[in-house]
Amino acid sequence: MFAKPSTALFTIIAITAFSSAVHANGVSIDPVSWDYTASVCDCEAGVTVSDSSTNYSTNGLPASGNAVFPNGAFTDVVNGSSGVTITGFPAILVTAAVSQSTYDIPLGGAHAFGEMTYYFQLNANPGYGGSLLNIPVLFNGSSSQSITGTTGSDPVTTSVQMIISTADGNTTFYNLDAGYNGLYNGTLSLQAGVEYAVYMSATVDIGGVVGSAGGAASIDPMISIDPSVADNFDLDFSQGITNSAAAATPLPAALPLLASGLGGFGLLGWRKRRNARAA
Q1: Which end of the chain has fewer CB atoms within 10 angstroms, the N or the C?
Q2: Distance in angstroms (rounded) separating the CA atoms of residues 207 and 110
Q3: From 21-30, 140-149, 263-272, the region with the lowest mean pLDDT
Q4: Which positions ≥6 away from 56 have C-beta within 8 Å?
Q5: What integer pLDDT is reported at residue 54 of this predicted model?
Q6: Which alpha helices (DSSP H) does 36-189 contain, by range?
């Protein structure tokens, strides 16, 4: 299986408990694995609202998680929201936003993280008798990272990752820079009949806020066969992966907060005061 980076929250070893999906052409492809965490906290008070999930099966996409603070059980000067959406297109989108009143101590923080590993294999079409080595396979997509209102002692940080490797992780063909923001593309020289892995992740962290802050990050790679050899090969993907650039990515609930500049979101936090801090 694909050995993911050390920042991954789960071990790929657990995937071996599940059987590979057998496609109509008899090719076995390992299943998708994914997990996410969304959380918001009054970090100084030690109170956190979170939503997380881990899935090693072939089902469960699209997946989404959201955390909203306060959640009705706790009244605070901090308001926040974070969200994660993972789809089989494939795409990951994470957002987080926090607002609090004007205490000098940064109280609120938020975190949103999503990751997924899926697999693909290049197969020769019936009747093809040419070489199975050094087949050109294209990858392209976009990464997006944005930050709004960075105030407080700790900055808002975002990152994305996209790694293409052999399924066992022993050979890496491409590793997108974590700070990359924009379109990316390239050509891989792959072997037919060999399974490959795509690891992708997106993260937003808000460490401490005085005022309002937010961030968003997304990643959406796509794999295709070079047109010069497309008649001779096809691609099989993990079950649930559509590999479609035309599909639209649904947005988590936190994103509208960023689009509106956190305007209405922060209003309640600016008006509230905790008596212990006001003294």
Answers
A1: C
A2: 7
A3: 263-272
A4: 10, 14, 15, 17, 18, 31, 33
A5: 84
A6: none
pLDDT class for 8, splitting at 50, 70, 90?
very low
Global confidence as pTM = 0.80
Q: What is the largest CA-CA distance in the chain?
A: 81
In this structure, which amino acid lies at residue 39? Answer: S
Sign of CA dihedral 124, 199, 177, 158: positive
Looking at residue 58, the DSSP 8-state letter turns out to be: S
Cα(183)–Cα(40) distance, rounded to whole angstroms? Answer: 30
Query: What mean pLDDT is predicted for residues 5-13?
Result: 33
Task: List all residues 6 or more positions away from 279 whose beta carbon is below 8 Å from its beta carbon.
Answer: none
∠ CA(36), CA(37), CA(41), 5° rounding? 170
CA torsion angle for 7, 12, 14, 18 (degrees, to 10)? 140
Q: Which residues contact 53 (CB under 8 A, 6 or more apart)?
A: 35, 36, 63, 65
Cα(266)–Cα(244) distance, integer angstroms: 37
pLDDT of residue 135: 98
Partnered with residue 183 across adjacent β-strands are 142
Alpha carbons 94 and 240: distance in angstroms, whole number: 20
Tell me what the pLDDT averaged over the chain comes to. 79
Say how far apart CA 20 and CA 32 lie, in whole Å: 10
d(CA 122, CA 136): 10
pLDDT at 132 over 70: yes
